[in-house]
Amino acid sequence: MSTASLGIAALLDAYYRRRFTAAGLVESTVALEDGAATTTMHCWRFPPPDGAREKDNDDPRPVLVLLHGFGPPATWQWRRQVGPLSRRFRLVVPDLLFFGPGSRTSAQGPGARSEAHQAEAVAKLIAAIVPSGSGASPVSVVGTSYGGFVAYHVARLLGPGRVGRVVIASSDLLKGADDDRALLLRAAAAGASSAAAVAERVEDLMLPRTPERMRRLMELAYHKPRRFTPGFVLRDLVQFLYSDSIEEKQELIKGITLGDKDKFQLTPLRQQVLVLWGQHDQIFPIEKAVQVARQLGANARLEILQNTGHMPHEEDPKRFNEALLNFLLPPPSSAL
């Protein structure tokens, strides 16, 4: 991310960071045990109690982990959630590896750029911030888009004793090569008037390097994108959001194992799962939502958010947040 930019993107970034601070979250960069590799993960988290160990915290709110999608850092993607959700949960909001400041790994080799490796890092972050032990309540995990891939792996890796409820939002856990080709065809059809906006690879679409491709990605991601965004604003957004760790992010896209039957088999989760999807999602079409919910088994239920696209948490944050709260929090006990 460019720190030299003084345009609208830098102003927005500062504003979004203030929203996280106003929600009572503090920044932290945690060193994670990762064999011979050096791995750190930056996050926004509930503050630890002063002068006390984490396990001595008597805050009754459950812990909720929010995992962002591919693209901007967590502050840009969860800005409409942290305020309302922080009233009911102790939040942990990491920047996944190679997104945002301080989330890096020197790990190399097979699997080092997979969503499963991201999940291992998140699991270690959870262990560092919310130690397990007798009486420790399970955490809940919410992931959107690419973050949904990671959330699935976290839930499977840690099991129901550590992760209680899971939300998979706008995330095609069954994504394969055919889905990537279909996405590129939809992008080409949407950008038929501009050859410069047509991407030949998914990584070119998801990591826009020009204002034209940034506009095309926004048109695909939102059901009702802004009618007109000036080119200089898009150029500033590209420079600020898509100039850091580009090679590593390309490797992350190539390293996704979900949908590759030679590397991974999707199995039902033992936790209760909510699959949330935008009605007009053009990145992962709504028919995939039905397939994902069915594949996740009897513990999964599907909820469609009307008049939204791939970003329902931004396009209709009120309904998105209500869906999370209704699913994640137990109903109040009836009076005797």
TrEMBL record:
Q: Would you say which domain of life the source belongs to?
A: Eukaryota
- Return the Gene3D superfamilies for the record: alpha/beta hydrolase
Pfam families documented for this protein? Abhydrolase_6 (PF12697)
Annotated ranges, domain AB hydrolase-1: 64-323
InterPro entries (UniProt xref):
AB_hydrolase_1, AB_hydrolase_fold, Meta-cleavage_hydrolase
Name of the featured protein: AB hydrolase-1 domain-containing protein
Which organism does this sequence originate in? Brachypodium distachyon
Gene designation per UniProt: LOC100830702
